Amino acid sequence: MTLEINASTAIFGPNGSGKSTFLKLLGGIIYPDDGTITIQGYDVIKNREAALRHVGIMVDPIEFPATLKVKDIIEFIRIMNNISNNKIIEFIELLNINKKLYNNKYKELSMGEKKKLRLLNALSRGRNLLLLDEPFSNLDPNIQLNLLKLLLDIIKKKESIIVITSHNIKLGLLLTNNIYIINNCSIYSNYQKSILKIKKKDNTTLEVKVADPLKYNKILEFLSNISSFNDIDIEVVS
Question: 154 vs 1, 11, 165, 188, CA distance in Å?
C-alpha cells in the first residue's frame, strides 16, 4: 500500500479485520512481523523519531492520565505539539470542547468528551500524517460534520496525509474515494482498476475504483449490510 501525499484514505472492514492494527503499525505503536513501513523516506523502526515526528494518531487504547484535568491536558497538547494558542483554540471550537468541563478530571468525562480530547491531540500533532481510528463514533452529528469539514480543509490546503478507519461508510465516502476494504487481517480489495458507481437518492454519483471485478458481489454485499448505507443505491459500472 502506498499513501499519496496530500490525500486521504478510508479503510472499511468488519470488527476484528485488522483496521486498528494497521493504524498502530503505521503509527509505530506496534512493529510488523515482516515488511517495512516508511514515512517520508524514514523507516518507522530504524528511524523511529524522524519517521513519527509529525504523525498524529488516535487509536485505542491510547488515553490520557485519569486524574489529569481537561485544562491541563489541553495545555500539555499545546506545548508537546508546539502549536500556537490560536491554532489550538480553532481546534477546540471546531470540536466544541465544553469550557465548563475544564476543571473536570479525564476519568469524569463521557466517552464523547474523551474522544474530543484525543482528536485534539492527533490534529495538533499530525502535520505530516494523521491516523484516525473511528473518528466519527461517539460524537454528536454536528461535531461529526465539523470534523469532516476540518479534515476536508486539511486535504484542500495540502497540509497532511489522512488515513481513517470507519464503520460509517457515508462519512468515509464524503472524505475520500481512495478506499480499502480489509478482511481477515488482509487487504480484501483496494479500489484501483474497475469502478463502482455509488448513486445517491439525490441523483449525485461518486465513482469508486475497485481492484478485483470478481469480488464485486462480495463488496456490494458488505456495503449493503452497513446500516449507514440505507439511503444510497449502488450500481456497478462495467
Answer: 22, 18, 17, 28
Question: Which of 147, 144, 122 shows the shortest CA–CA distance to 57?
Answer: 122
Q: Tell if the pTM clears 0.70, that is, is over it.
A: yes
Same domain, 33 and 65: yes
Same domain, 179 and 231: no
Beta bridge partners of 132: 58, 164
- Grid coordinates given for 84: 500556537
Given a cut of 50, whether residue 70 has pLDDT beyond it is: yes
Cα 174 from Cα 201, distance rounded (Å): 15
Taking only the tens place, the pLDDT of each residue in 171-191 is 887 888 688 888 766 665 554
- Pairing state of beta strands 55-58 and 129-133? parallel
CATH code at 85?
3.40.50.300
Angle at 22 between CA 17 and CA 26, to 5 degrees: 175
Least confident of 5-19, 81-95, 106-120: 5-19
Return phi, psi of residue 152, to 5°.
Answer: -65, -35
- 125 sits in which H/E element: helix 111-125
**Are both 142 and 169 inside the same structural domain?**
yes
